[in-house]
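Checked the freezer inventory, then went back to the computational side. Two predictions to log before the end of the day. The first one is the construct we discussed on Monday; recording sequence and tokens without edits.
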Amino acid sequence: MKEFEFGIYSLGERVPDANGNTPTAQSRVEDIIQMAKMADEAGLDIFGVGEHHRLDFVTSSYALILAAIARETKNIKLTSTLSVISTADPVRVYEDTATLDLISDGRTEIILGRGAFLESFSLFGVSLNDYDELFEEKLNLFFKLQEQEVVNYWHGEFRSPLKNAQISPRPIQKEIPIWIGVGGTPASAVRAGRLGVNMALGLLSGRPESVKHLTDLYWHFAKEAGHDLTKLRVSVTGHSYVSLTGEQAITEFVPHYNQYFSYFLKERGQHFHSTVEQLMPQRAPGQILAVGSAEELAEKILYQHELFGHSRFMGQLDMGGQPLSRVEKAIDLLANKVAPIVRKALSK
């Protein structure tokens, strides 16, 4: 049985605080690098950076940020969370990822997906009408690049053919670990299972039973396709925060939760506001939102493990402008309190 892994990630959003002050792009990038260093020093297993192409994010070139992190860290694995393969050139993505693997001495992974925002489609000149076809074709090409350092011939609909194409550099790892990011779409879970690649399940709120069908589909179709289930993994990712007590965690989390969602939902004409009282029940094991004390978060992860069979948890601790000093304390609790509880329970 694989040891359960713990990590954190950042999407690099620049959300104004309650006074309307927005962090600079430079300070936000620096905070992300510092978070990764803290996570590495605390002994967490993995750190991720998402991809977005908007002025209110700083992570359009996530591979460059991860490369900077690679030079500042020693042990922690590094991944995209996630790479929007639908609108990118898979050759370029693979080359960047392989280069990151060289820089990090073989600590690189990648999560491929379609993302929650659509700005990259118009930015890179691809049509939303081809949403599914783009993802399918480019995903399959990425797998081929992983397998072949010289692609003798490849032809697709959405980019020029490859003929005797040398794919360089090659990574340190024989194969870079690939995950497919899955939100709420059953077809994505089925695809990941059939392909026999790891699944990164993004969960935000509600009850975990409501999404159990996604992991059930994943494991079912992976088994049906003949893949070795012992070599496959599921991770759970989502909004997270941990403090000394559950009450303190919710109290410190709510203002930044509100800043984050009210900012992004406002552009869709929606209003968002949660109170401390409304979120307190979310500390229960049967709720997805990963906020609470170390003991509560551990209980929540163990509850979900029974449902999903997952072996990795990744939390977005810095959402909505959560101060770096609090993020550091949350990282310490995740690494030194939550992780030991979960691993001890699973070892039995």
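The second is the one RB wanted added to the comparison set:
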Amino acid sequence: MNVRDLGGLPVAGGGRVAHGQLFRSGRPETMTTAGWVQLRADGVSTVIDLRNDDERGRRSSDAVVDDEALDGLHRLVRPTEDPTHVEFKQLCWPYLNTPKYYADNLRLWPERFVRIVHDVATAPPGGVLVHCSGGRDRTGLVVMLLLQLLGVPDEAIADDYEVGVRAANERFRVINHPVERYRTPEQLDAWVAETRTHLLRTLAELDAADYLLRAGLAPEDLDALRARLTEA
């Protein structure tokens, strides 16, 4: 399900992203009881769902999970977009599937990203799992913001995004997606190169701290986020 701990990524000036504090994934309904037990053992206490209302819920092919494995989780629903928004539909229809449109998504809904970053900064003790459906672009957009705020180099952020792209492609090998199809290795390499270019361009033009503070993020949230998600 394309889940991983982002701990260990380098932070400019020394240090790294703290282990066990920030995780990313695709839709968690595919995770088994054993998977949830392991994730809880890794310290996850908060789950932030970036999907829209019509995307959430269990499918017949999903794992059946023991309730005990989910007890006590702090769950938040925080969609990054409004799929009915006219301009968004014109830009990103049928859905956000490339960093080419990250800047537009940030421009349209800054208040949504302020809320998400606030939620991460102020979550109960423990790790935070951020997820969408495929674990690639909406998750990638939020993770991009968080990692830039922490001082992770652009190339390392792009490397992390690439892992998500390649993992999502493997998922398309075995599922019948309504829009996307599995890419051959040659097609995938070309797509990765294109998406990395878009992501790196976005990062070069973005000052995440300035963007969020101007949109209403409290400075103390930024301080709390950095203290929470980095280690020496």
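For RB: The mean pLDDT is 95. DSSP finds nine helices and seven strands in the chain. Let me know if you want it refolded.
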